[in-house]
Amino acid sequence: MKNDPFRASFDSLEEFADMVSEVLHCPITIEDANHRLLAYSTHDDRTDPARIATIIGRRVPEKVINSLWKEGVIPSLLNSREPVRVKTVDEIGLGNRVAVSIWKNDEVLGFIWALEIEKTLGDEEMDCLKRAADATKNKLIQLQNRKNKKEEQYQEFFWQLLTSHLSSNEEIINKFHALQISPPTLFGVAVFQFSKELGREDEKQIAYLLKTIQLPKILLHTIDHQQLILFIALDGNQQPVNKLNAFCELFVVKMKERFGIESIVQGYSSVYCDLGKVEKAYKEARTVLSVKRKFPSEATEIHGYQSLGIYKYIDVLIEKAGTDQNENYSLKRLQEYDKKNNTDLVETLEVFLNKDSNVHEAANALNVHTNTLNYRLKRISEIGEINLKDPNQKISLYLDLKLEKFKK
Amino acid sequence: MKNDPFRASFDSLEEFADMVSEVLHCPITIEDANHRLLAYSTHDDRTDPARIATIIGRRVPEKVINSLWKEGVIPSLLNSREPVRVKTVDEIGLGNRVAVSIWKNDEVLGFIWALEIEKTLGDEEMDCLKRAADATKNKLIQLQNRKNKKEEQYQEFFWQLLTSHLSSNEEIINKFHALQISPPTLFGVAVFQFSKELGREDEKQIAYLLKTIQLPKILLHTIDHQQLILFIALDGNQQPVNKLNAFCELFVVKMKERFGIESIVQGYSSVYCDLGKVEKAYKEARTVLSVKRKFPSEATEIHGYQSLGIYKYIDVLIEKAGTDQNENYSLKRLQEYDKKNNTDLVETLEVFLNKDSNVHEAANALNVHTNTLNYRLKRISEIGEINLKDPNQKISLYLDLKLEKFKK
DNA sequence: ATTCTATTTGTGGAATTACACAAATCGTTC
DNA sequence: GAACGATTTGTGTAATTCCACAAATAGAAT
């Protein structure tokens, strides 16, 4: 192969994919950096399930991406300009193939995949693939520019939603259509707080992760200092809240797994259908974060606004309790007793309430025998004159315990 | 008996009691209208346990009063000027005796008791007793006047306490001593709301009842339109709150039993030791009443401020929820489901939460099988995406349910 | 009328919880 | 150190709750 066949100009990426396919005698797929399908060769109809799924869905299936990360394929593609060979992974229908990344300066713009259906590519063909990657560079830069412009429009629109800048729902829906996003009938807003200001590089990694997670659909996302804000479509989910919750958990795990970014604090809103409530949802998600800041140990497990319980109203409660010089007789008695007798009745009570009055769980959390806990609860009832079967009394105590905790 | 021996003037009631005792040959006791001991004869040492207890305690024991009411003795003494005979009631150590009431116009000022230790009083002696009663009238009027003046001082002091008019605790304690009340180390304030304005007559009945209830000590009481306000000493009680609660229940029962006054609404404060907190306690008791007004069915069982639970803060919560346009996704879903399928999931959830997550009790309250309730709870979890083991979620729901109820 | 699904109720066994009692432990007081 | 009371833990049994399954019922859709 003396002349580089890829020197010639080409009109579309499809045309180019076909050309490469013909040169290498194997099916070719071209993706962008987020594993969205850009083009695929059609002159060769031999293929494998992973490729079919990619073409049908216009993107690489999530489980395939996960597998490629686990196998170390994607990391090495992101690190090196050399082609990488992938061995068959039957579970996800991935046949043997070779991939190469497409570079612009120090940035990966996309990937070219060559399926090794019958034959294995030799060194020379590998080199050819590498040159093919270089040849697509300009085309991808153009695409990226176009996408960047669109991305800017998205950003602007998202901030308009977040600040309730658009008044009527009709206006919002029109804007969605203008940006070629189908407006969700059910949505939530999630906010992730990072431990540092998010830079250009982080942004790219995040965008990559968001694009590759396929469900739920992240319709819009933006970054505000240390916070990542997501607008998430939850249409068609039987249990949208659970889906949202699962996603947020997953996102945090993946960020750590893939990019080693830790200590992300998550918060998400209620689920709404009214598109006029994006700002409200945004506020809710931030309320969750603010509660976590105020009650680090209590609220680590709480991510959703609907799980906030009493903390939803913690601000006004603190205020009210402050002006009223709140003082709980039962707690006072228990504290006095604790002090005098070196016991932990107050803590016991709190853990018991935290654990939804479940003796077993509370005993475990306290590292004591169940009978010990029962004994303590009996004492708590007596000393504090508390009826632990009365939900109102329990709420009072729970509340006052948390309020007191906040004062310190 | 031609000459009325009681015509002669006498210096003290004690002297008079001895005189009557000598004429009738039996021990004599003189009480005021509230069964406080005014005087007793000492020349005759035959007596019975009830009389001993009365003299020791300077008042008729509560159980004796209760018994005399049940037997109809006191009602007839209050209705008629004729002497009444009481047969032995062994359980309370009450021997045979005769009583007569002391009248001023249409008002009973007190009673004279004559014990029939060995002999039974004949008609003539009964008549003699009646004349004796008449002879004490003036003495009792004097006592009453003195007491009225003291009562006025009490009233003024109580209102000073209720309005935090006295600044230092020292000042308060001095005032207590000046009025010959020993200041309590532990106290509570109870407010009873009657269904009508309280008149002179009601006031007397109430005062009577309060004086005859011996524990806890009602140190001060006053009436404000439809409300009776009590200042209650709780010193020495192991469980002051329970004592206070028991008293309030008892008071309502007695008012109905004795005077047929129904539909009294009760509310009582926390227990405090700081005498500067009387006003706060008063406010708490009124808060209970106001919650009962707002949530008639929810709060009928709640009497004490410490049992108010979330209702303690209901005002600020309502306000906050109002401005925030609060909307609970789970409840919304459940309501929609209820409407569409004619089910009662929301009500089921509420009862379940009211009953402190006790399946058995909630099933009873709803008149359904336990399994039915369990099935519904499972559906509630699914449809509302609720984790019923999470106390925060439960509190959220409880709160939002009550807030919604209030809006209607 | 029939089919379907959602709901209600019943049954029985496994799992969990409640409770009483005894022994051990620990700190305090005398 | 003896005695005491409060606390912790262990043991066993009774009571209750949980759960799975089946049958009966009701209501809606076809």
TrEMBL record, chains A, B:
Pfam families in UniProt: GGDEF_2, HTH_30
Gene3D superfamilies recorded: PucR C-terminal helix-turn-helix domain
CdaR GGDEF-like domain span: 168-291
Region forming the signal peptide: none
Residue ranges annotated for the PucR C-terminal helix-turn-helix domain, each copy included: 345-402
Keywords noted in UniProt: Coiled coil, DNA-binding
PANTHER family: CARBOHYDRATE DIACID REGULATOR (PTHR33744), DNA-BINDING TRANSCRIPTIONAL ACTIVATOR ADER (PTHR33744:SF1)
Family: Belongs to the CdaR family.
Name the record gives this protein: DNA-binding PucR family transcriptional regulator
